[in-house]
Design goal:
The protein is of the alpha/beta class. It is built from eight helices and ten strands.
């Protein structure tokens, strides 16, 4: 059994919180730069140019790429031959230090109705998966409210067609308009159950926009969904144009014979995540 130092976990989570909020993944940068040449709307091109300059300045000056530094969503894959003392506590301590030491905005309220700020952006949303081996994989994905609030889930039936699913995804993006700060990345979860499909959609946002689903069926669906979303004409920041989404990422999972849940988790133009293996 490999014992992983709790202090190392705390420091790693802290660093990932800061890194994810300051530096966009390379695939996102590439997509946004490419979008400048793809957008036909003059206003849309201007907006995209501002977005590119924004993430370049944020990285240069080491400041947050967005004022909404999000609720910390932490995916942990823990090897069955590894152990960390009080793993949830270590993750939350890392988030606390990352947001306070990194001067990141603390946006978490401890209770949904009393609305009192926790003061340190904890608790984080922690998803734990046990895997073979003795490694510890940590992904921190800060999630802002503008995009999260426009997410949706629909409990379809097996009678629903691929076109029904595509139309639901496109309608969700079109209804959202400029609220999630497009151009967006759309995470789609198909299968599982009510909460399982939402988790699949969240995981989809952590996949590189340069990586397509390895299953040809879902890879084709991703392409068709992206085309449908960009036909909505929402455009950059909702001002109209052809680049409404940079990518659609689908993750699929087993489901009940009577179910076909579909979840859409909206990501904004700063769809952020940072990853490390210990």
């Amino acid at each position: 059994m490999r014992e992983i130092d709790r202090k190392l976990v705390i420091e790693t989570v802290k660093e990932l919180c800061i890194e994810a909020n300051r530096i966009l993944p390379e695939d996102m940068k590439d997509c946004l730069r490419a979008a400048c040449g793809q957008e036909e709307s003059p206003l849309g091109r201007e907006v995209l140019g501002d977005i590119v300059r924004n993430f370049e300045v944020a990285e240069q000056k080491q400041i947050p790429v967005c004022q909404d530094t999000g609720m910390a969503v932490v995916f942990v894959r823990l090897g069955e031959d590894a152990h960390v003392k009080d793993l949830p506590g270590a993750v939350n301590e890392g988030v606390r230090r990352g947001y306070l030491d990194g001067l990141l905005r603390c946006s978490v309220v401890s209770d949904p109705l009393r609305r009192v700020n926790s003061g340190d952006n904890t608790p984080a949303v922690l998803h734990l998966e046990i895997i073979p081996g003795d490694r510890l994989e940590i992904t921190v994905a800060p999630k802002g409210a503008g995009s999260e609030n426009m997410s949706a889930i629909k409990m379809m039936t097996p009678a629903a067609s691929e076109e029904d699913i595509i139309n639901f995804v496109a309608h969700t993006v079109e209804t959202a308009g400029g609220t999630p700060c497009p151009p967006v990345v759309v995470g789609v979860g198909i299968g599982g159950n009510f909460e399982g499909s939402a988790l699949l959609a969240k995981k989809a946002l952590c996949r590189s926009t340069a990586v397509r689903n390895p299953d040809p069926l879902y890879r084709d669906l991703e392409e068709r969904m992206l085309e449908a979303v960009n036909r909505t004409g929402v455009g950059p920041q909702g001002f109209g144009g052809r680049v409404t989404a940079l990518a659609v990422n689908i993750e699929a999972g087993a489901t009940h014979i009577a179910c076909l849940p579909v979840a859409v988790n909206m990501g904004c133009h700063v769809t952020r995540h940072a990853h490390r293996v210990l």
